Amino acid sequence: MLKAELAAALFGDENPVGKMVTVGDVPLQVIGVEERLGNRFANSGWTRREMEGILLPLSAFRAHLSGGHNIHLISVRTHNTENLAAVKAEIERIIRRTHKGIEEFEVENVADEMLRAEKEIRVILRNWTVVLAAIAGISLLVGGVGIYSVLRISLAERLYEIGLRKAIGASDQAILLQVLAESTSLSLLGGVEGVALGLLVTQQASGAFEAGLPPSPSGLAFAFAVAVGFFSGLWPARQASRVSPVAAMRG
Question: Domain boundaries in the chain?
Fold first, then answer.
C-alpha cells in the first residue's frame, strides 16, 4: 500500500491501484493508497512523514527485502487518545523486557505532539473567530447606518410624493410598508451578493483547505443581513407614515 505523498509523486492524479512499483529490485503490486492527512498548508513534520513511504506485510519484507529478522522501527496506533502516556509506558515496558532491560531503544509519542499542535490551532482559530465576529458586527452596524442614511435622504427628496399619496387616500400603513420594503430589498440584495461571494471564495480555497460553506451559517448570515435592513428602515418608515399630507406637499 502506498502512502499519499509517494502515490502523488509516482502517479500524480492517476489511480495507482493495480499498478506495479519497484522497491530495490523487487516488483510489487499496489493494492491501495492511504488517505491524505490535513491539507497542503498543514502537512509538515510528522504529518508529512506519516504520508510518505509504503506499507508492506512483514513476511513479504523479510522474504524479499531485508533477508533478516531485525526490526528497526515499529509504529503503533491507538484510538484511545486519552491514555497516550499509559500506552507509551506499556510499550516501553514490553520492549524493555524483550531487550532484557537494555535501554537501546527510543519510544516517541507522536500522537501527543499532534494533539498539542491541534490544541494550539484550535486556540488560534478561536481567536480569529472572535476577531472576525467583531469585524462582522462592525460591518453590520455600518451597513445599517448606511441604509438608514440612504432612506432619510431618499424620503427627504420624495416628501412631496409621500404627501400626494396620502392626500389621495394612501394609509399610514401603506407608506410604512413601502419604506420597509425598500430598506429590506437593499439588505436582501446585499445578503445575496455576500453569500455568493462567500461561495466563490470557499470554492477557490477548497483546493488548499477542506473548505465549504454549510447551508445553516449561510442562511443565518442572510437572515441577519435582511434583519439589519428591516430594523434600519423601521424608524424612517415610521416617520414617513406619520407625516402630514399638507406639510409634506408644502415642504
Answer: 4-109, 112-250
Between CA 208 and CA 172 the distance in angstroms is 55
Q: What's the rounded Cα separation, in Å, for the pair 182 and 188?
A: 10
pTM above 0.85, yes or no: no
Best CA proximity match to 191, nearest among 147, 155, 133:
147
Nearest partner of 42 among 50, 32, 34, 53, judged by Cα: 50
Q: Which residue has the cell 432619510?
A: 152
- Render pLDDT for 112-155 as a digit per residue (tens, 0 to 9): 777 777 788 889 888 988 998 888 888 888 888 888 888 888 88
What would the grid cell of residue 239 be?
416617520
On whether the CB atoms of residues 135 and 167 are closer than 8 A, the answer is no
Cα dihedral 235/238/240/241 (nearest 10): 170
CA 171, CA 219: separation in Å to the nearest integer? 34
pLDDT in tens, 131-143: 988 888 888 888 8
pLDDT tens track for 193-206: 888 887 888 777 66
- Cα separation, 60 vs 24, whole angstroms: 13
DSSP-derived secondary structure for 194-245: HHHHHHHHHHHHTTTS-----HHHHHHHHHHHHHHHHHHHHHHHHHHHT--H
